[in-house]
Amino acid sequence: MNAKINTLSYLLRIWRVSDFGCDLWRASLEKIGSGETQGFPSIDALFAFLQQETQTNNDKPPAEVAN
Description:
Shape: elongated
Order of helices and strands: EEEH
Number of helices: 1
């Protein structure tokens, strides 16, 4: 993630689907400005993406921090 970005804006869509009798949640995010859309097979996958997007250089191990 670019260190100069202080705001991320997305349109969030979530919906429930039935898969072989099991209800599952799906999600998509549309990036405001670019219109780029990304789908997620689960809420956990959505959260993992958001966690990655909001990770700062201070959160990364020393080997990953750019100088």
